[in-house]
Automatic annotation (TrEMBL):
Name of the protein in question: Jasmonic acid-amido synthetase JAR1-like isoform X2
InterPro entries named in the record: GH3, GH3_C, GH3_M
Keywords of this entry: Ligase
Upper taxonomic lineage: Eukaryota, Viridiplantae, Streptophyta, Embryophyta, Tracheophyta
UniProt keyword annotation of Ligase present: yes
Organism: Solanum pennellii
Length: 577
């Protein structure tokens, strides 16, 4: 029995790389076979039968018969599955688990079917990127300090297990087996990961990491935000953590019995370790290089660092010192798309090679035809270098020609499969009339204005935005949380800089003729964005999956209320006066 287990747990990175090389060389053929497999498996479902496919499994028939859809189109079908309808609606085999999206984009989570095939593709992505990562940055018999949190799973009306996509992965036995095989098991026990209070779980993650500080070789989380959040917390509680290690007694702030019980097995009095950590902390200048000081054998920091996570990179680099930041793979609650097979690239340049066997992918060119009609989708091997596309996914869990809502750019090819760069979410737009500013445009504007704070030794802790159309003309509102007090003069400069940094032609011309009003910068109290995190966690979101909503609209009124009720100062731009 032990030999069988050892064989199962054996992980050969070179074999994984070789398999990926084969897949990527024949990407077109693999895509054809993957679609065929999906349609053979699910061709008799209610959803596919209504489009008159008549059990055809070729790409042309599929594209001609089955329409492009969004989540809204599939919602009635998914709702029936959630409520317990066991007939083959979207998939032949019944769906037994539902994933919830983070809900930070639209204000409420989406329900998405999850099955073993999706779990297998998750593990394939994890193994593929780990194999390439391990070739550049080897880890051997170490541990990972993973700031991961499983939210509560619940039963739907129809008896299906429902939880966030990350929770469904962490709770699956394959996840733990894979982490063990990749020689980076998590420092923290399950009771900490799945604890009911993430504040207590975070404290214990830090404590577990410190107890095992010499074994930690990777510091990671699903998103970069969670790593920054964890070490901001460390700055506040480090004296308490040191005292816990010195005395071998867990802080009274942890009151969940299962967590206390699990931690009691790890925490023993260790004055020497306490002194080491204390001395490391007091010698640091403004916490620069905190992570390698605490965890001296760390090889790299790992997590999703693109898109809405890019604004946290400056702070993460501050904590990381000289350690490399490696961006994790590209996926969503709906499933995975590509793996980072070039781990040496910095997060700002990272690309993702599409795995051609985990789903069927189409790409809509982001160019409109003369009559304003959307361009025709092209296949995985038909995309062109440096062009931007909207991704369409067909997977093994009942999504057919599903518009993901992500804009990607083709930056190269790994053999025959494209390497994508994530650009932005399509629906996160600041727009009043002819202006169109994306999440990336907002991020660049904030970065430019934040430069003005550097001389004051201040930084933007987090930010969001809103389009205020209650005033006439409407105007952009940017919310900033700062880590200290800034002078009125500096904030007025920042406000003007934000306004001038939106260089979209529609915005600039509208500002000049005053069909868009002066941009407003609102400073919110410290801790406001933490309140927003708590709000989403209260709705059942997992901290691991949390993304700060960058553009808060009418579908997210509760978050808008938190922001507006926390405003302490407000400035209007004079840049176009």
């Amino acid at each position: 029995m032990k030999m069988v287990e050892e064989r199962e747990n054996k992980f050969d990175p070179q074999q994984v790389i070789d398999e990926f090389e084969l897949l990527s060389k024949d990407a077109g053929k693999i895509q054809e076979k993957t679609l065929q497999k999906i349609l053979e498996e699910n061709g008799r479902t209610e959803y596919l039968q209504q489009w008159g496919l008549n059990r055809k499994t070729d790409q042309v028939s599929f594209k001609n018969c089955v329409p492009l859809v969004t989540h809204k189109d599939l919602e009635p079908y998914i709702r029936r599955i959630v409520d317990g309808d066991l007939t083959p609606i979207l998939t032949r085999k019944p769906i037994t688990t539902i994933s919830l999206s983070s809900g930070t984009t639209q204000g409420k989570p989406k329900f998405i079917p999850f099955n073993e095939e999706l779990m297998e593709s998750t593990m394939q992505i994890f193994k593929t990127s780990f194999a390439f990562r391990n070739r550049e940055f080897p880890v051997v018999n170490g541990k990972a300090l993973q700031f991961i949190y499983g939210s509560k799973q619940f039963k739907t009306k129809g008896g299906l297990a429902a939880g966030t996509a990350t929770t469904n992965v962490y709770r699956n036995s394959q996840f733990k087996k894979t982490m063990k095989a990749m020689q980076t098991p998590c420092c923290s026990p399950d009771e900490v990961i799945f604890g009911p209070d993430f504040h207590q779980s975070l404290y214990c993650h830090l404590l577990c990491g410190l107890i095992l500080r010499n074994e930690v070789q990777v510091v990671s989380s699903t998103f970069a935000h969670s790593i920054v959040h964890a070490f901001r917390k460390f700055e506040q509680v480090w004296h308490e953590l040191v005292a816990n290690i010195r005395d071998g007694v867990l802080s009274s702030r942890v009151n969940v019995p299962s967590i206390r019980s699990a931690m009691s097995k790890l925490l023993k009095p260790d004055p020497e370790l306490a002194d080491t950590i204390y001395n490391k902390c007091i010698r640091l200048s403004n916490w620069y290089g905190l992570i390698p000081e605490l965890f001296p054998n760390t090889r790299y920091i790992y997590g999703i660092m693109t898109g809405s996570m890019e604004p946290y990179l400056t702070k993460l680099r501050h904590y990381a010192g000289e350690l490399p930041l490696l961006s994790a793979d590209y996926g969503s609650s709906e499933g995975w798309i590509g793996a980072n097979v070039n781990p040496e690239l910095p997060p700002e340049l990272v690309t993702y090679a599409v795995l051609p066997n985990i789903g069927y992918f189409e790409f809509i060119p982001l160019v409109e035809n003369v009559d304003g009609v959307e361009a025709t989708p092209v296949g995985l091997t038909e995309v062109k270098l440096d062009e931007e596309y909207d991704i369409v996914v067909t997977n093994f869990a009942g999504l057919y020609r599903y518009r993901l809502g992500d804009v990607v750019k083709i930056k190269g090819f790994h053999n025959g499969t494209p390497e994508l760069q994530f650009i932005c979410r399509r629906n996160l737009l600041l727009s009043i009339n002819i202006d169109k500013n994306t999440e990336k445009d907002l991020q660049l504007a904030v970065e430019a204005a934040a430069q003005l704070l550097l001389n004051e030794k201040l930084e933007v802790v987090d930010f969001s935005s809103n389009v205020n159309t209650s005033a006439d003309p409407g105007h952009y509102v940017i919310f900033w949380e700062l880590n200290g007090e800034a002078s009125e003069e500096i904030l007025k400069e920042c406000c003007n800089c934000l306004d001038k940094s939106f260089i979209d032609a529609g915005y600039v011309s509208s500002r000049k003729v005053k069909t868009i009003g002066a941009l407003e910068l609102r400073i919110v109290k410290r801790g406001t964005f933490h309140k927003i995190l708590d709000h989403f966690v209260g709705l059942g979101a997992a901290v691991s999956q949390f993304k700060t909503p960058r553009c808060v609209g009418t579908t997210n009124l509760s978050v808008l209320q938190i922001l507006t009720s926390s405003v302490v100062e407000s400035y209007f731009s004079t840049a176009f006066s």
